Amino acid sequence: MDLFDVVLAQRACRHFTDDEVPDTDIERMLTAATHAPSAENMQPWVFVVVRDRDRRAAVGELARSLWDGGARSFAAPHIGDRMLASIDDSVSAGFGGAPALVIVGADLESGVHPSALAASIFPCVQNLLLAAAALGYGAALTTLTTLVADQLRAIVGLPDTVQPFAVIPIGRPARPLGPPRRLPVGTKAHRERFGTAW
Amino acid sequence: MDLFDVVLAQRACRHFTDDEVPDTDIERMLTAATHAPSAENMQPWVFVVVRDRDRRAAVGELARSLWDGGARSFAAPHIGDRMLASIDDSVSAGFGGAPALVIVGADLESGVHPSALAASIFPCVQNLLLAAAALGYGAALTTLTTLVADQLRAIVGLPDTVQPFAVIPIGRPARPLGPPRRLPVGTKAHRERFGTAW
User: Fold this and answer.
1) Is the ipTM of this complex over 0.85?
2) Which domain holds residue A66?
């Protein structure tokens, strides 16, 4: 699939079918992920692929407790009723029933300066999301459960030396994904100096 | 270009020709960037495209002062002599002589929770890098100058309400880019629990 076709169509998927995600597809996604840039090419990423039902449910329950316990109240004023309802449904179903979760963390002993860790992880996450889309999967970037890193660590046995940055549900979309809604570049870009219209 | 072909070939470019990057290509890159995910689709990204020679030189000089003033010493033990020499050359030439710099920031008043800002910017940066590669440009993700955010802000007139996250040099590669060097997925991925080999 053409890069621009994938990039311009990619959007969050919050509702999944039960269809499994085979190892070969996971590996293509992770190979894409590992080709992202990182500070000094230190490749600090760590992936845990979770398909076990009970373990997925535990991560989902952690997300639900945080959503109901405050994140929903924070988000509600900012987002429309439709998105709120969609997230409510997704959270109730445990990451929308996704058959696979990929937890992406950073190895704190990799040598990457702390200030460059996020810059060395989220490009990798984006490559993973794009590869999933190119293979016909839905996926989403979630970070809520990383706010309680130790609880997330406990579920998947991550040591203290790995900081979780994202949990990515992956599966076949249960409903067709509409086009992403984005503001035009002209509202976001400036020429030479901030305030000079592009 | 095929998504996987671009993703698997992408790598940092540190040396550029003088050839200009036309608006149409910048717009394709920024359009790709704006199609990245962000927390609650808040799209907090802000871009300043810098092509003016003096302003580019000022950003380059800021990077040089930080590199010579400590970043080089931090990086040197971690990276090989070849990469160190390549970065030295690139820094001396002002982001390798790139004819365009894209400064990517986050609008702190966009409504994105502070904990989700980096997760809402670096996927956009990665889309930009991939789009540049697909169009035959070299580019690189740099974050060094964002450590002195106020100095970077001053050069391009960014208000305090915009936090710079990355400076991306873009141009035609001055030398052929070799393949990226990455560790295999098997060294980074775990099955169900950390420590269980993929």
Assistant:
1) yes
2) 3-187
